[in-house]
Specification:
With 377 residues, the chain is α/β, with parallel strands linked by helices. Helix 6 links the parallel strand 5 and strand 6. It is globular, with a radius of gyration of 20 Å. It starts with 11 loop residues before the first strand and ends in a 16-residue tail after the last helix. 47% of the residues are buried. The N terminus is likely disordered. Bound molecules: nicotinamide-adenine-dinucleotide and thymidine-5'-diphosphate (TYD).
Length: 377
Amino acid sequence: MLESPISSNSPCILVTGGAGFIGSNFVLNWIASGKGRVVNLDLLTYAGNLGNLGPLLENPDHILVHGDICDRGLVGELLLEHRPWAVVHFAAESHVDRSIRGPEAFLKTNIEGTFSMLQASLEHFRSLPPHEARHFRFLHVSTDEVYGTLAPDEPPFHEKTPFAPNSPYAASKAASDHLVRAWVHTYGMPAIITNCSNNYGPFQFPEKLLPLMIVNALAGKPLPVYGDGQQVRDWLYVIDHCRAIEAVLKAGRTGETYNVGGSNQQTNLTVVLTLCDLLDELVPGSRYRPHQQLIRFVDDRPGHDRRYAIDAGKLERELGWKAEETFSSGLRKTVQWYLDNQVWMEEVTSGSYQKWVSANYGDRAISERSTVTASAK
Ligand code: NAD
Ligand code: TYD
């Protein structure tokens, strides 16, 4: 096995998208645990938020660079200047509904951006002296959505499941995964891919299911469940995902893919009902209790994948990773975080967020389906 680069003399990494949801959790954890400096390259799109990085903005171990991953010259300069031993590539357009309404940005950032990162990183890798090249790795953070959708009785996705992406988002991520694979095979790029299931936790932008439902429920607004709410996702607490990435960086084999998931399959309706129960408990004075009265079934997402589930056995066997949070403990921490961070929530939901909400939900019909009851769980 490689000597751990984490304890080597060059403890700097380049992270892309480190002002977004998973990236900011990763960077905060990395620096808090003393693993070394982080150069954080982020374009600060609507999804990137300096408020996620508050405690790090004055920290000399965190070097924020406001820039585009598509700018290969900039990426090359950063690599040359900081000589990171690893690149952790989170930056992407990440929301399926937005990809349906405007796929162009997904092709540009997720495909062209990954191409740019690979080219700059390969050039850098080739220029390194052997003792530095030995440690260098490019970790591409991807999603389980590249595998498509599962029938109720099919086994979870494993690393050899053929790709069958169904949304523009999933197709763009699948394309980026293929680029990484090709750079490994053709150019000997020391890259690793992780494909993770749905994350939840602090700092998630409220366009995604859980934070959207929390924000709406606290304001007494409708909770829009797409279709029949019986779609299944495999939920993983974001810090467990960050720990998986750390484990892969430390000891993962280059050229390999590792699936990451929480072995926690739930229907969307169950997730929303569980959230409503928790809000009833944590906000006992709310005038919207019981919160489940706010649930509304609305028009489905076009091409909506029915079920995702991940087999994370390879990661567990090879690298000893295991999710530490249960859904119950992770959800409680998450809801409490949103309750404790109302200013963050108000900041991210002002301005352009309102435009997105009216574009995505404004013309969705509410179905005739009867009101939800706890027995629907
Ligand atoms: P996010 O949308 O919250 O954050 C994306 C970040 O990338 C933002 O900070 C944004 O400003 C930045 N960015 C976008 N375009 C950029 C560009 N051209 N140059 C530089 N920075 C740019 O996304 P997330 O949910 O944190 O996801 C991070 C990664 O993890 C993505 O690659 C996503 O596909 C993958 N992933 C996400 C999940 C999930 O549940 N959220 C699950 C599995 C995998
Ligand atoms: P999302 O958080 O967008 O993640 P993904 O599409 O990447 O899985 O959605 C999670 C699930 O929740 C998905 O099946 C779509 C559903 N959903 C709703 O029912 N209503 C909503 O308003 C949103 C945003 C998602």
